[in-house]
Amino acid sequence: MPYYAGARAVIYRTDLYKQAGIAATPRTLDELAADNKKLMAKFGNDSSFSAVYFPGKNWYAAMSFVYDYGGKIAKTQGGKWVGALSDPQAVKALQKLKDFVLASSRASKTIDEAHPQQALVFAKGKVAAFPGNGWEWGYALDKKLGNPKLAKSIGAFPMPSHTAGSYMPSFLGGSDLAVTASSKNRDLAVEWISAFTSSASETALAKKGNIPNTTTLVGINKANPQLAPFAEAAKFSWFVPATPNWANVESSNVLQNMLVSIFTGKKSVKDAAATASDQITKILNQSS
């Protein structure tokens, strides 16, 4: 049973946006790219400034582009898994991603979003925005590690889609509850989970800052500027291929290596995507 969810939105500096002449949050990906151009023109003389902090190995955010353009990481075909990053929709998305990142981000192309932690990079003042989880808003303001002085100049909005009127799908993480097959008190356990995930319990959980487990409750925090953007982003989501072998794709760094090759120019988008697709096909169909 789903317990709560987590989704990414764009966490940004409202003051920097204002100084760059940006009056409203973007409604499309192209509008966001145009806003980034304004930010780079205003603050880009500082070689460490990024309109959007996007390190090269941030595959969670990168794959959102792929799904936004109708692509997938992998698909089933003839009873087997097939890597799909070489499909035209995915290649188009990855090219758009490359153009977006190279124009807007000065983050290293060979690191991920956790090393260093992107919210703390944002807190240092030379980043206008980054795609992050709701908890990263608070982490950026942490009294010991972050910068609490940013509290009055921080906001968030769902990552806009390339299609007007929609949002870019966000990786939907979270937590699940389950009863083990060997449980000696299955009925009691099921009853407990039912109570623990009731509408009343989920409402209380949402008010503490988490995204509830059902879309019927997702609007609970619509008046809260810190919580609402992430709940809204959760309405448009994607998830990894549902197969046990997916863990082997992650541990092999297939997506991360593909992105580094793309951003550093080591390979063309098409060639990097083809290599990753072949690796994904092989790994997902391996026998245990």
> Taking Cα atoms only, what radius of gyration do you get, to the nearest Å?
20 Å
Using the coordinates above, name the CATH class.
Alpha Beta
Gap between N and C termini: 27 Å
* Sheet with the most strands, sense and barrel status: 3 strands, antiparallel
What is the CATH topology?
A: D-Maltodextrin-Binding Protein, domain 2
- Mean pLDDT rating: 96
Structure description:
With 288 residues, this protein is an alpha+beta fold. It contains 12 helices and 9 strands. The strands form 4 sheets. The protein has a 3-stranded antiparallel sheet with strand order 5-2-6. Helix 3 crosses helix 4 and helix 11 (254-264) packs antiparallel against helix 12.
Task: Name a few traits of the molecule.
42% helix, 12 helices, 288 residues, globular, single chain, alpha+beta
Summarize, please.
With 288 residues, the chain is an alpha+beta fold. It is 42% helix and 12% strand.
